Amino acid sequence: xxxxxxxxxxxxxxxxxxxxVAVVAVLLGATGTALAQAGFFGRGVTRQLARxxxxxxxxxxxRDREPCVVASDSxxxxxxxxxxxxxxxxxxxxxxxxRSDGTYAVxxxxxxLLAIQATAGPEQGLALAGLDVSAAAALTASYGGTAESGQxxxxxxxxxxxxxxxxxxxxxxxxxxxxxxxxxxxGSAPPPDITYNQLATVASINAFxxxxxxxxxxxxxxxxxRFDRLAGTRVDHRTGxxxxxxxxxxxxxxDGAGVLGLTSTTGGETYAVELDAAGRPLDxxxxxxxxxxxxxxxxxxxxxxxxxxxxxxxxxxxFAVDAHLDLTDPANLAAARGLLDxxxxxxxSPAAATRALRERLAAxxxxxxxxxxxxxxxxxxxxxxxxxxxxRVDWGHTNVATRLRSAVSRGLDGQWIPRTGCLx
Length: 424
What we know:
Blueprint: H1 8-37, H2 40-56, E1 69-83, E2 86-99, E3 104-120, E4 123-128, E5 131-155, H3 158-168, E6 171-174, E7 182-185, E8 194-213, E9 216-236, E10 241-250, E11 268-275, E12 281-291, H4 306-309, E13 317-326, H5 330-342, H6 357-364, E14 366-384, E15 391-410, E16 416-418
Antiparallel strand pairs: 1-2, 1-15, 2-3, 3-5, 4-5, 5-8, 6-7, 8-9, 9-10, 10-11, 11-12, 12-13, 13-14, 14-15, 15-16
Helix pairs in contact: 1-2
């Protein structure tokens, strides 16, 4: 038999398999709505049928099965020194996340800070009707950049977490006899599962024209422009997959609602594209986070299931939503092309180029939503020279703890169901 030919039995099996797929597709179209009306059980059935069709078409079908973070504890410490108009600093980041599949993610990172500020503009004293008045016209521009890099280990148990943390600690030991100086044994750890590098920049321009008379200030004209951007890459060394992500905003324009319907006044969106080891796009992830004081704080994508997420709270409650679009589907990739192009370095938010993605995500994407209780403890100190040039040192820490309250997901069938496994 020549290569490429099939036997009658194999051909019959192929025909039967195609028939099965056709039946699944018909079931999705004809009975999906009826099953959905039967409650969350029926919705689970339609989800599995939709996933079966996705698997047959060799798509990226498992994003709604990724484990949830049920609890996390993070600590960030930082120090910064300002000399006149230049600030240099750095910090350390440590995060431990407990996930719903029983595993833990431990992240250790470092950051470096550079900020520059410049002010220009004369201030002139005037005499108006016998009053001392100073007129001012000033232009203040500032730029700040923070470079961050880190490593993440995925561990099977809390005992493994303790062993890793113990191995990462530096240990001072005596290098000789009594009176000998202390030496430091650097901590060691196995190779990380994931590494990342990111750069966050903030540029702002403030213009002011006005007058000061005593304690009163009269503003004649003013403007405040601000550009924020965060971009980075993450590499999963277990699979060879690489993720490129960016978050951008600009106060000089109101982009309105982003891809998920989250307005720029309530938060921001992060866009990430995952590539396989060969550089082929696999997945587009759109992430939005924000304070959850009430239903109005939620993005449009979550309004239909606000009741499943539980009530908001004035303080200490936040939401997070991740939408995924399978980029192995050519039609999905074409719909995301504008966003991929907009992720290149430029001023402004990529959201303006992604509004057309809403309908595509609504019809062919999956969405994960979570509500967490969040507590934060911060402390800071500062030391500066009372006279002379402006010299100051600031240092402090921020501890953040989150605990998952609720989780829901929308599958490829378009139906929402609670993710009870995340809270088990």
